[in-house]
Amino acid sequence: MRNFVKVAEGADVLPLLLAVAQRPHLWNANPIRTTHPGTAHAQVDDILLRFNVVPGNDPAKVIDDTECINYPALAELPEARALIFGLMAKVQGERLGRCMITRLKPGGRILPHADAGAPATYYERFHVVLLSAPGCVFRAGDEQLHMRTGDVYWFDNEQVHEVVNNSAEDRVHLIIDIKTSK
Questions:
Q1: pTM of the model
Q2: Cβ neighbours of residue 130 under 8 Å, at least 6 residues apart?
């Protein structure tokens, strides 16, 4: 596969998944990705752990911004740190970018889109699968796959990509942007 590379499997995601379940107030505390006009992520719920400072809550103002800061949710979910920094070490990351937990409910869809700006050109994008069931399909370019719980993937987010959750379970991913030396 060209657009997906499995970098790990069997990651211990249960502590973070349990911590997220115990803190439902964190979902959509900042809906910047899910509410702007034309977003592909309208059906997604987010927990932003690290993200850009967003002047005037305008997503267009951060598309090329490489600077990210910790959001309050990261302090409430210290269980995420082991996964984030474990991956940073594994891929010899040089800089940590956006980190977020996303949830796509059964029957939901992330519309086809290609990422642009710093999230696609400066950082490498990784997905840690916290929860996924058969029937949830992730497509990038001309490739598609079902990512299993505990899998960790790099994927080429400059390719047109989409997700369809045809399962009976939520799809929950920890997305981590890392600058690597390539």
A1: 0.96
A2: 13, 16, 17, 20, 101, 149, 172, 173, 174
Strand 95-104 to strand 136-140: parallel, antiparallel, or no bridges (unpaired)? unpaired
70-110 confidence digits (pLDDT tens)? 999 999 999 999 999 999 999 999 999 999 999 999 999 99
Distance, first Cα to last Cα, the chain: 18
Instruction: Select from 87, 66, 75, 89 the least CA-distant residue to 47.
Output: 75
Tens digit of pLDDT for each residue in 12-69? 999 999 999 999 999 999 998 999 889 999 999 999 999 998 777 777 777 778 999 9
- Distance of alpha carbon 6 from alpha carbon 163, whole angstroms: 17
Residue type, position 23, single letter:
R
